[in-house]
Amino acid sequence: MVARPYGSWTSPITSDLVVAEAIRLEQVALDGATIYWTESQPQKQGRSFVYRAVPGGEPEAVTPDDANAYNVRTRVHEYGGGSFAVQDGTVYFSNFADQRLYRQDVGQSPHPLTPPAAAGALRYADGVIDRQRGRLICVHEDHTRAGQPINTLASVDLSGAQSPQVLVSGNDFYSTPRLSPDGQRLAWLTWNHPDMPWVAAEAWVGEVQADGTVAKARRVAGGPDESVFQPQWSPDGDLYFVSDRGSGWWNLYRERDGAIEPLAPMEAEFGQAQWNFAMSTYAFDSAERIVCCFVQGGVWRLAQLDPRTRRFDPMALPFTSLSQLRAGPGRAVFLAGSPSEATALVELDLDTGTHRVIRRSALLGDEVRPYISVARPIAFPTEGGETAHALYYPPLSPGFTAPAGEKAPVLVKSHGGPTASASSTLSLAVQYWTSRGIGVLDVNYRGSTGYGRPYRLRLARQWGLLDVQDCVHGARHLVETEGADPERLMISGGSAGGYTTLCALTPAREKTFSAGASYYGVSDLAALARDTHKFESRYLDWLIGPYPQEKQTYAERSPINHLDRLSAPVIFFQGAEDRVVPPNQTELMVDGLKNRGIPVGYFLFDGEQHGFRKAENIKRALDAELYFYAALVLRSGLHF
Predict the structure, then answer these.
(1) How many CA within 13 A on the CB side of residue 91?
(2) How confident is the model at residue 582 (pLDDT cuts 50, 70, 90)?
(3) Parallel, antiparallel, or unpaired for β 259-262 and 251-256?
């Protein structure tokens, strides 16, 4: 092996490889024996397409890639999800450009079902097909009036002959409309400001009347101290759902004969933070078998559950991350990944336990695999005698080693949300760093999901404090236990993680990080409270405090007000069309750093929103961040 300083190792994992042929697998659905899914393709300007695979067949595109530039993506809640539904081979999808619902029959071109509206002001998501009445029941978001948009549950005629009709209204948010097998009852989730669904959400059921309206609605579960996730009907007509009631863990429950009963009580999470629509962690292959996934200690597993006997059997599979779980007779389909394999669409035979990959998000050649650094879950002490969690990826190369005595630079990653979590699934964007001799610490700070309700809610009124403490203590833990270089600690994050990054770079006490990168991160909390979209418009009430009553706290925790404490270089990346964190947030920070003469970089990408989807922008940002650190922190030179 060649001795070369950390951060200067050559690697086949280039930014070109990170984006080349890489796709983002999104929503999964079953239509009989046929598997459908959406995938976002960076090489096609980040547009999303519906694909399908018939039994034994290869993936084939459903959405045409023509001059209409269809993009299967909804903007409900801005984060979307649940952008299509399928029945008997006919696909119904939201188109990003105009936000209209389209119908695409087999072998035909798509045609619109819903009326046009200026600037995509009428939006649809998370639809379920009501076969008896020839309609789609979905979440409807109306931006045609002044002020905040109106969210409802509505029906859309599948022939396009009638205008959409509102079925359920009155609350701030709705999701997950699901019809009972006989079509006579509708279940859904709902919540109101200032709550987010992972804090407090309710499951309701209403009776579908002869004219298609919904009446006699009743609350089944949920309340101010309970978060409910994924209501779903069993084939024999019982309502199931995930809730964190009582135990503080998102566990699986059902309502039967008016009573609610737990099915597999355990210290594990069967739910997820509902940032997107159409999330699923369990499904029925029959009335006698539930397939479910759960997370413990940051690792996801799959299990089979008999709802009659409540026998719970975990399955031995080579995956640590699972999502978008669907099931049909004798099989399950889901997205899965592991520390050595990127996310893939997988079909599992429930009787034999064998699985096959339908679609991979990235293809790895044999020349790349020796460079893969496997995530290692760690727990470390943090403020107040508490424990925080992270995934550590040590530097790794088959061809290089560091000179004797050199300590490794580490890039600390702060995930977005902040109520979310870091994944252990193989990411070439992480390996880009480790294969060059830069360790990566992906922190699941207090407030992350996957560790129970108390841990998930730990950021209440504490955002910008506990998350920062955990990133700092995680970095220092590596200095003490892994030989990390205390002079070459960097921090990077996107969205809420960008805010954590900026807070960590403006410490009130001793400095920990030598440089950082903010991807569409928050710098001015008050500006965010005044100018963000409806879904998150009251999130800050919970994370910081009500505005403007807590105006002083907002000012104290806003990095823009502490430029005098910032002496480390920062590079910023921003989407010009971002409605979640508008560009002015970033530009205020950039101007302040320039005025102080601190090294700063700024990339504004046209055509990008909250998160980058275009290959050329993903590549440019990754390379620019590396060059920025190389010039100002690593002091090791670059070799490509």
Answers:
(1) 29
(2) confident
(3) antiparallel
Instruction: Give the pLDDT confidence of 415-467 residue by residue, as tens digits.
Output: 999 999 999 999 999 999 999 999 999 999 999 999 999 999 999 999 999 99
Q: State the Cα torsion 562-564-569-574 to the nearest 10°.
A: 40
For residue 72, CA distances in Å to 21, 27, 65, 113, 277 come to 19, 10, 11, 15, 14
Q: Are 321 and 338 in contact (CB under 8 A)?
A: yes
**C-alpha–C-alpha distance, residues 516 and 371, integer Å:** 25
pLDDT of amino acid 640: 45
For residue 130, give the nearest of 173, 169, 76, 167 by alpha carbon. 167
Q: Which alpha helices (DSSP H) does 483-582 contain, by range?
A: 496-504, 525-530, 539-543, 551-556
At 221, the amino acid letter reads A
Residue tagged 């969210």 (tokens): 151
Residue type, 7: G
| 3 state SS of 174 | strand
Q: Are 201 and 219 in contact (CB under 8 A)?
A: no
Neighbours of 406 (CB within 10 A): 17
Separation in Å, CA 519 to CA 120, 172, 439, 621: 26, 29, 20, 9
Is the Cβ–Cβ distance between 5 and 637 less than 8 Å?
yes
Query: Whole-model pTM?
Result: 0.94
- Provide, for the chain, the percentages of residues in helix, strand and coil under a 3-state DSSP scheme, each rounded to the nearest 5: 20, 40, 45
Helix axes 466-481, 496-504, angle to 10 degrees: 70
Q: What does the block give as tokens for 259?
A: 């009573």
Q: Which of 217, 155, 163 is nearest to 190 (CA)?
A: 217
Rounded (5°) CA angle 100-154-99: 15
3-class secondary-structure state, position 485: strand
Residue 166: predicted pLDDT:
98
d(CA 220, CA 627): 54
pLDDT of residue 637: 52
115: left (phi over 0), alpha (psi -120 to 50) or beta: beta
| The two three-digit tokens of residue 479, written as one number | 């200095």
Q: How many CB atoms lie within 10 A of CB 567?
A: 12
pLDDT tens-digit readout, 239-279: 999 999 999 999 999 999 889 999 999 999 999 999 999 99
Percent of the chain at pLDDT exceeding 70: 99
Name the residue type at position 326.
R
